[in-house]
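step: validate -> pass
step: tokenize input -> pass
step: predict -> running
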Amino acid sequence: MPTLVRGEDVYSIEQDKAQLIVRSGTRDAMKQRIRKFVAADKAAIALKRAIANKLEEGYVLTEAEIETAPAGAKVVDRELAIIENPNDEQAWAIYGDWLSDNGDPRGELIALESSGGDPDKIKRIEDENIFSWFGEELWERHEDLTCAFRGGFLVDVKLAIRFEADNVEFLPQLLALPAARFLNSLEVTAQLYDPDDFSEGARIYEPRNIEPFTGAFDETPALALRRFKYDATPYAPVQRGAKMIHKAPRLEELTLHGTGIDFGELAHEKLKRLTLVVPQLNEGPLVEQLETMKLPALQYLSLTVPNDDIPVEALTRALASGALKAVKLQGALNAGELLNELADSAFLPRLTRVDVVAGSIDDRALVTLLENAERFAHLDRLVFTGTAFAREAESRLRAALPNAVFGESAPLEDTLFYEPTME
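step: predict -> pass
step: emit ->
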């Protein structure tokens, strides 16, 4: 039964032979009505038309319904093709033709952009329709965001959440727009304090109204989202940041920067790249959290956590299964211990690169690392950047590990870990 949602509004429609069963309302109050037709094929046509109309009104199919939508639901197929592959030029062209056939100026916009058309005409179409696509009130707040479009649809967004400005409602409002249905990349910066006030008595903003922001994906699942970065600034809470990814089923890259993360919430079937900068971990049984962390597709991990808080053995167990290719450990005072645990881990043979940034390796750890040098010999690179070594350690490591790279000798263009630019 196709089910569509828009904020709190829910609409479902089901065919039963020559009639349609329509349910609509809010999640807590649904009304039902029956539409009867002279034949089943007439009902089927009306079903497709009803779904198309709701999609144009800003409703989105729930994830379960999109995956099982019938092939005959052409508008669903067109949108799903772009959701599945945002770079599919043919899918955009087909969708643009359908929009043009239905009088939507975004159809012409897609055609112009795809063919390298007149930039002045593209800008004119955007200027004439921007308020209708976003709503005048919402678009007038666009100073809070930097965005990129394709065919009048948002594809990349950078959004500043300022708690003192009470603008945390902006993200759920933005995601609920029909123009955000193909959003591919979302970067959110949240501030709990005035970044220009460094005085001792600087005011800390109270995150009393963060719930609308962290629940944004609950209201409107981000079906096309591939990249999500939540930079909450040091010591700002990201407890629910991990939970938000459950509503982004195609997410491939996640960055979380802030305090209080629950590793147990990090469960995702398709996530490939994970960057965690967590100055303060969430209270609770961290070992159990790590054991419930499920990231079977993870290939690249960059981890910055409090040195004394991370149980090394539990972390290596958590990463033992999956597709991991590279690990970056940053700010680990016990970098030597981490490397030695890594030497005994089941996934080290699968890795191609290990980066140690701003860590520390003492004499005892160095001895153990040298004894295990052959276990790291298969790596393309073992990179040490800003790492504190015991005396003469670097020369001994160079002799034992020809693949080791130190400090500035690591070429930037070859770095595996990077902040992707939004194109």
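step: describe -> The longest strand covers residues 153-162.
step: cleanup -> pass
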